[in-house]
Amino acid sequence: MRAIRPVLFNLVLVLGLSTVASGDELAKSPLSIWREAPPAAGETELERLNRAFVQLANNARPAIVQIRASASQDAKLKSEVSQAQGSRGSGFIINSQGFILTAHHVIDKAKDIEVRLADGQRLPAQIITADAQVDLAIIRIQTERELPIVPLGDSEGIRVGDLAVVLGYPFGRESSMNLGIISRAGRSYPDSASYEFIQTDAGGYAGGSGGPLLNSKGHVVGMITMASERGNMGFATPINVIKRVIPRLMNGEKFTWGWLGVQIAEVSLQQAKALGLSPAKGAVIHSVLPGQPAERGGVRTRDVILSVNDNQVNSPRDVSRMIGGLEAGRVVKLTILRSGKTLQLSVPLGTKPESAKEREA
User: Which residues have CB under 8 Å from 313's CB, separation 6+?
Assistant: First the structure.
């Protein structure tokens, strides 16, 4: 037995040295397992495009913030339960003195607002002004340093197929950048806060509301306020509409949005054929509410609204959007089809009664 031990020891030593030698050989010869990428000979088109995306992100991300809104300031309620009742969204700095643009529904009914900057600093914020109809809010943080901003562009110039970049804080976590195209250019109306959403496949997600939609130059062309159920489609308010409203809000004005007082429905193909409408368009009046602006202006049940202020109506949603973006007291010109004849009606818009607001709520 004593003679066997030295033999076993020598065998183990030889095996160990063999293993080390094999490891050394592998370390010296990595190409036997993987292949190292060769040094780049020159910059490709894709690399230049990649560099442009990185530069766009580096320029914009410092101005994108996360917003945390709580419904109560009571310290005893600041538990996991109360945090669940609050909301988290995104926003972007539009003025180096701390003014931040976000969506109204992110901070609606909030008593305590906290802003998290791109570098992780957390600061309290106060609401400066807001409007629920356009779904925008301006909040402000106080800081001694000059803050980075993102410039506001022109939403009228965007086209389907244009590059689209969405920045925000998805699901209340870290900053994110999504890339896609403009799927629908949207629309705004002159001298009105009416608009159609800009649609992008760059996506929309919980926590992204209030974040900017950028073009290829890094300019804001919209603000994300809605998302599809699966999050693969984002909807943005055109920035030109927001720029039209902000100066008046900052001057302390409050908008009282217009109200027509009708219930409308889509014109069916059968109705269009009977009315001689080809192609089918407009919105048919289902009912006229008593004592409201439409009734006083001569609108009747079964009238078909063909245009509002010379803007063609293709669906009931067009009427709601166009009227909702005009202020109470404005006279709206309606082109009506009634009994085969086209009429022009001028109707002063009123204010939505509280009873109607309660029903909608």
Answer: 281, 282, 283, 305, 306, 307, 319, 322
* Active-site amino acid positions: 105, 135, 209
pLDDT computed for residue 75 by the predictor: 42
Superfamily assignment of 59-141 in CATH? Answer: Trypsin-like serine proteases (2.40.10.10)
- According to the model, what pLDDT value does residue 356 have? 58
Residue 274 CA to residue 340 CA, distance in Å, equals: 9
Given a cut of 50, the residues of the chain with pLDDT beneath it are 1, 4, 7-9, 11-17, 20-21, 75-84, 358-361
183 is written with which tokens? Answer: 């799927």
Q: Are 100 and 140 in contact (CB under 8 A)?
A: yes
Distance, in Å, from the CA atom of 209 to the CA atom of 153, rounded to the nearest integer, reads 19
Domain spans in the chain, listed from the N-terminal domain onward: 59-141, 155-250, 258-360
Q: Establish whether domains 59-141 and 155-250 are of one fold.
A: yes
Cβ atoms of 308 and 336 within 8 Å: the answer is no
Taking the C-alpha atoms of residue 328 and residue 352, their distance in angstroms, rounded to an integer, is: 9
Query: Residue type at 11?
Result: L
pLDDT at 194: 86
Q: What sign for the dihedral angle of Cα 243, 247, 249, 254?
A: negative
Domain at 155-250, CATH homologous superfamily: Trypsin-like serine proteases (2.40.10.10)
DSSP-derived letter for residue 341 is E
CATH number at 258-360: 2.30.42.10
Contact yes or no for 178/88 (Cβ under 8 A)? no
